[in-house]
Amino acid sequence: MEATIQSRFTNQKLYKVPTVRCSATTGKAASVFFPNGLGSNRADWQSMCAIINSNSAGLIPYNSSSSSSGDNAKAPMINGHDTSATLDIVPVPKLPRPLSISDLSPAPMHGSELRVAYQGVPGAYSEAAAGKAYPKCDAIPCDQFEVAFQAVELWIADRAVLPVENSLGGSIHRNYDLLLRHRLHIVGEVQLPVHHCLLALPGVRKECLTRVMSHPQALAQCEHTLTSLGLNVAREAFDDTAGAAEYVATNGLRDTAAIASSRAAELYGLEVLADGIQDDSGNVTRFVMLAREPVVPRTDRPFKTSIVFAHNGEGTSVLFKVLAAFAFRDISLTKIESRPHRSQPIRLVDDADAGTAKHFEYMFYIDFQASLAEPRAQNALAEVQEYTSFLRVLGSYPMDMTPWSSSSSSTSASSSGSSS
Ligand SMILES: O=C(O)C(=O)C[C@]1(C(=O)O)C=C[C@@H](O)C=C1
User: Fold this and answer.
1) For residue 16, what are the CA distances in angstroms to 2, 94, 97, 340?
2) Which part of the chain is the ACT domain (predicted)?
3) Mean pLDDT of all residues in 224-231
4) Chain centroid offset of residue 209 CA
5) Torsion angles phi and psi, residue 175, rounded to 5
6) Are 221 and 235 in contact (CB under 8 A)?
């Protein structure tokens, strides 16, 4: 398991192919027991989560031996551009280097501040989200989502803050899949207004640009604006927005712009060619906070609960029954997402006359607006369990109730009041 994509000494990306190895699913059924009336103390709650997680762990173990493609990697030659042709190299200040898989030895770093892992380099929106969730935290950059999960599991970090959905681009599927494969608990959420800028080296004009680099979500969030700015540029995916800015700066690329935050422009010495280039001024990304221990659910403030379940191929009726279990108890759903069932992606149905039908199998993720301390939520889940072959509670946590303001800066670190 090796992933050297960042030089330890120069803070510059080298981009050998990352080889993160993640788990596969086994597909065995698991059961979950919901006592009628959950105890209110931490011990009860933790033992309940342990039951849930031991069941889900049996179904979908996390191990590091099977393969996955990992996050994007890049070679120094991109779309025929020789990135070694460095012209005006802007001096980039020494910033914390993102954690790599190779850094993940379980030696805890002790300190008084909460250590919060995020994916990306300083200046990424995820760093701002970490600051919003935990205002005085020590934010730890990680080069992949997977590494942020492992940093918490191995006690290198106390929390991870990871994006799960964006108002324009939709769900960040990789993190849904990783939530299932790891055993961390969702302990909170923050919603971050995302305000993108077009950044280039000082003196570069828009007309000189042939390429724009950024995180795929950021490229998608600015698609129409790029066209309306008259930019006829190739879009190039990068691991994170600030990483793209750093790459443009350290390689002196005068034909390439990055889409990133104004903080990234300051950090990497780039100029803002255009400000607020997201296609919708209300562009917002929702992040979840992850921890090794769950929070004790409460009823004195708005809570959300996130679950994931699978069923044994009885068509749409199961989904209907699950939704009804919430609807009849007046519990609002705030999100529903489906992902391929990794251990059983396809179900074959033989029909003597018509041949073999191939149905896709899914994992369903649901967020609902209730605390697991509420009997109506416990009863709904007890009912859901009857219809499903696998059920796991990912977390029951305080909702982000920050007053909505689409214009507030994504890089300001105001408290959401939802820290756990
Ligand atoms: O690249 C970054 O700066 C990130 O923090 C990642 C990310 C994402 O994954 O969606 C976060 C917020 C924005 O939606 C764009 C990119």
Assistant:
1) 10, 22, 16, 29
2) 307-398
3) 93
4) 30
5) -75, -30
6) no
Q: What proportion of the chain, given as a percentage, has pLDDT over 90?
A: 60
User: What letters, b where the CB count within 10 A reaches 16 and e where it falls short, cover 143-152?
Assistant: bbbbbbbbbb
Tell how far the Cα of 294 is from the centroid of ligand 1, in angstroms: 25
Give the sign of the dihedral formed by CA 167, CA 173, CA 175, CA 180. positive
Q: Which atom of ligand 1 is nearest to the CA of 261?
A: 3
Distance CA 174, CA 184 (A): 15
Point out the residues that are catalytic: 285, 287
Tokens of 274: 């255009």
- Nearest-atom index, ligand 1, CA of 192: 12
- β pairing state of 211-214 and 234-237: parallel
pLDDT tens, position by position, 243-273: 999 999 999 999 999 999 999 999 999 999 9
Instruction: Say if CB 113 and CB 88 are below 8 A apart.
Output: no
Mean predicted confidence (pLDDT) in 96-118:
69
- Cα 15 to middle of ligand 1, angstroms: 20
Helical packing angle, 375-387 and 316-327, nearest 10°: 170
Query: In the block, which residue shows the tokens 């919708």?
Result: 280
Angstrom distance (rounded) from CA 414 to CA 129 = 10
Query: Which atom from ligand 1 is nearest to the alpha carbon of 194?
Result: 13
* Residues found in the chain: 420
Best mutation site among 259, 285, 287 for ligand 1 pocket (most ligand atoms within 8 Å of CB): 285
Q: How far is the CA of 165 from the centre of ligand 1 (A)?
A: 10
392, β-bridge pairs: 308
Best substitution site from 126, 162, 194, 238 to test ligand 1's pocket, by max atoms within 8 Å of Cβ? Answer: 126
Which three-class secondary structure state does DSSP give residue 185? strand
Q: Kindly report the CA angle at 366 between 164 and 37, in degrees rounded to 5? A: 125
Q: How far is the CA of 240 from the centre of ligand 1 (A)?
A: 6
pLDDT exceeds cutoff 90 at 1 = no
